Amino acid sequence: MTGKVILPKFDNYILLNKFGLRLLGLWPIPEDSAKWKFTLKKLHVSLVYVLLLSLLVPQLLDLYILWGDVDANVENLCTSLTTFTVLAKLTNIVASRGVFQKSLATMKENWDTIMRHDNCPEEREILLKMSKVGFVFTRNYCIIMYITAGMYFLRPLVVGSGTKSPHVKEYPFCAWYYYDQFSNLTYGIFYFSQVIIGFFCGTGNFTLDSLCLVMVYHACAQLRILQKQISQLTNDGSDDILIVERVRQLVKLHKKNIENARNLEAVFSGASAQQLLVSCVIICVIGLKLIVSLNDAFQLIMYVAYMQLVIFQIYLYCSPGDELINQYTGNWDALSSR
């Protein structure tokens, strides 16, 4: 008696991405849902915007007030640029939500099709391998992100204000609040708010970055599966009519892959270019902070962790692009022309 085969679930491989998208209010809801659910989702996204802006505006005020203090300005830019890019990426997803939801639906549909019991196990293996790569990258990025954020949250408590600091009150992220100068209660409220908003900001950062990698690797898996299907087109000695029908199905599949690639480009192209530019700037400012923090062990470790995070972030965008190029070019040379 053979037991029932338990196939991997789609949600298990995008678990962290789904968590982040739900936290940001970006996870799609069914089209036939009640109107109040759509209204609640819009309010959710609006609340996330308000939270992020309530951090970015004080950061910009701090940058303006302390303009000319190179050390303070550089420290501010390390985090304010990240807050800005999260807002920009969030705006990009909201603006292209129709295409984004279609891409997610295509991923789910492809997964269900490949994972059917009557499908080829080799194709399932291809998809599972690519999905596992995406999940591992997402998990590692998530860990590095939260470790770095945690060090920022604890920095004012560990390091203290210091005699060289231009700030009256020290926060996890450099910011200026008018009402906290002489009130410890107000300071505690703003400090706690930065921890909460920092959690949202960090989650948005790793979710939207890693989601690009996961979706591009899924597209790579579809191309590799298409390549395999083409290579086995005539292996079973089928007649010409059946082969022609298979070719038609493969053409439809390839057109679907092309459409999905265009959707991914529409969603992530601008955001990825902006993120790569900002990441390069952040690497420069972190490098300067590393030089001036050589005598402070905690801050040195914190900035080293942040540097690793940004480098990993750049790799997240470069790695799937390189894999996609390989799938479109190199691997097709191995196909027989007969």
UniProtKB/TrEMBL annotation:
GO terms for molecular function: odorant binding; olfactory receptor activity. GO terms for cellular component: plasma membrane. InterPro entries: 7tm6_olfct_rcpt. Pfam families: 7tm_6. Keywords: Cell membrane, Membrane, Olfaction, Receptor, Sensory transduction, Transducer, Transmembrane, Transmembrane helix. This is Odorant receptor 10a isoform X6. It is a multi-pass membrane protein. It is found in: Cell membrane. The chain crosses the membrane at residues 47-67, 79-100, 133-154, 189-217, 276-294, 300-318. It comes from Cephus cinctus (Wheat stem sawfly). GO terms for biological process: signal transduction.
